[in-house]
Amino acid sequence: MLHDQNTHDRDPETDDHEHPHPHPHTDTAGVLPRTPGRGLRIGIGGPVGSGKTALVAALCRALGSEVSLAVVTNDIYTTEDADFLLRNGVLPEQRVRAVETGCCPHTAIRDDISANLEALEELEESLPGVELLLVESGGDNLTATFSRGLVHRQIYVVDVAGGDKVPRKGGPGVTRADLLVINKTDLADRVGADLSVMDRDARAQRGQLPTIFLSLTEDPGAAPVAAWVRSCLSTMD
Amino acid sequence: MAAETLAALLLLADGRLPAGGHAHSGGLEPTVAAGGVHDIASLEEFLRGRATTSGAVAAAFAAAACAALTAGDTGRFAVLDAELDARTPSPALRATSRKLGRQLQRAMRAIRPHPCWAELGSRPHHPVVLGAAAAVSGLSPSAAALAAVHDAVAGPATAAVRLLGLDPFATHAVLARLGPLLDDVAADATRRAAGSPADLPASAAPLLDLAAERHATWEVRLFAS
To answer: Of A25, A80, A112, which is closest to B22 when you measure between CB atoms?
Structure first.
């Protein structure tokens, strides 16, 4: 990722913002830079029912006491995912924002990121010093992916019950996400999914990019994913 | 500012402009739920109503904001803002207009950098930002008005395709039939663009106001407005 200081130098003619910090959304490099003093934004995408909300809840439980974090949800049913987080006592209300996507969840995280940027900026304004912002996509298909102008990193979540051919099918989420999570490994036997096939196909599709096998039933804190997030937080790359 | 080109207008009026419009139905979602729109004929009636009420007001304010910026009179932005607030009785619609305004402002900062984006403040109304965007694009008040009234009907038309599964060809045929009406609305807005903001149209759409207030209370909705 681009993080050279030169990539966020500002033109005083065009730097019209009231806030003292540089604003990544007007960066001309097209990639959101990591800026000292501003939160890390991680997108979490994946098909319907793969466990995105459960993973977000697990990360909130695992990391909530270590860092100041907040969540933007994009579920097509607006407040459903946000309510899940609130109901389970994972996050207080002021740390969760829901964004409506007009029946197009992929548009809101890729082609027109306006509403999500708005929600993130509101959270940054209302929670000074927020360190980690998770953006959960509405459930979509394998072609959905986050804009590099919206998030610094993205996690793509698939599950074994969706079929062990999913990694082989590829798509930008599977091939290019910074982390691929293959969830619900505890169901593999029951749905006849071969984890070794998924592992082999994921490696073939992703090269050096990491893949984590996870069962939130067995590991409610999503320990390896939380560790990956911590490593992202510890670097300005 | 650049000279007016059709390409600049097409860019501004394109539904793919990343300024947040795709998540808004322009009151169509609650109107569908209330049974007010259910087929192509009722959609056409809804869009005609919208073009001649909130669409006409948006067109007039976009044209006026465009004229103000072109004349170097950015002090008028605050007057236009207050006048548009007074014409928007629904708090939900005021909030929506300011949210869409801020999103367009954010997009335009990157698309066409200009000092006016700061002068518009932190929560400008959408038609005012659209007018400024037209001016910065080298477009005339009539182009700004046309973009505004086009936006007022094209958004709900797309929402109807998504919500009701209406035939997209038939829906676009409706938009084509509305063309002369949109031209008339834009022409009227253009004639008033340089006049007093207090004299701009105040055509009301009470059913849209009520629908927006109801919609804002829904627990489950697909569109933001």
So the answer is: A112
Instruction: Provide the whole-model pTM.
Output: 0.87
Q: B110 vs A99: CB contact, 8 Å cut-off?
A: no
Nearest CA in chain A to B96: A115
Could you tell me which of A63, A181, A234 has the C-alpha nearest to residue A133?
Answer: A63
- Would you kindly state where each structural domain of chain A is located, as residue ranges? 39-233
Confidence label for B61 from pLDDT (cuts 50, 70 and 90):
very high
Helix, strand, coil % (nearest 5) of chain B? 70, 0, 30
Contact A118 B99 (CB under 8 A): yes
Q: Is B176 on the interface with A (CB under 8 A)?
A: no
Domains (ranges, CATH) in chain B?
Answer: 34-217 (1.10.4190.10)
- All residues of chain B having their beta carbon less than 8 Å from the beta carbon of residue A112 are 16-22
Each residue's pLDDT tens digit, B69-125: 999 999 999 999 999 999 999 999 999 999 999 999 999 999 999 999 999 999 999
pLDDT for residue B2 is more than 80 = no
The encoded tokens of residue A236 equal: 């300005």
Q: Strand A153-159 vs strand A40-45: parallel, antiparallel, or unpaired? A: parallel
CB contact under 8 A, A76 and B110: no
Determine the 3-state secondary structure of B149 from DSSP: helix
With an 8 Å Cβ cutoff, is B113 touching chain A?
yes
CATH topology classification for A39-233: Rossmann fold (3.40.50)
C-alpha pair distances (Å), B104 with each of A181, A207, B21, B109, B123 = 35, 39, 9, 9, 11
A102 vs B162: CB contact, 8 Å cut-off? yes
The full length of chain B comes to: 225
Q: In chain A, whose CA is at the least distance from the CA of B163?
A: A103
Higher-confidence residue of B30 and A100: namely B30
Q: How far apart are CA A127 and CA B29, in angstroms?
A: 32
Residues 1-60 of B with CB under 8 A from A: 16-25
d(CA B207, CA A192): 55
pLDDT profile of chain A (237 residues), mean per 10: 40 45 52 91 95 93 94 72 71 88 89 95 96 93 90 96 92 94 96 95 95 96 97 91
Nearest CA in chain A to B161: A103
Fill in the DSSP letter of residue B110.
H
Give ipTM to 2 decimals: 0.86
How far apart CA B36 and CA B43 sit, in angstroms, is 8
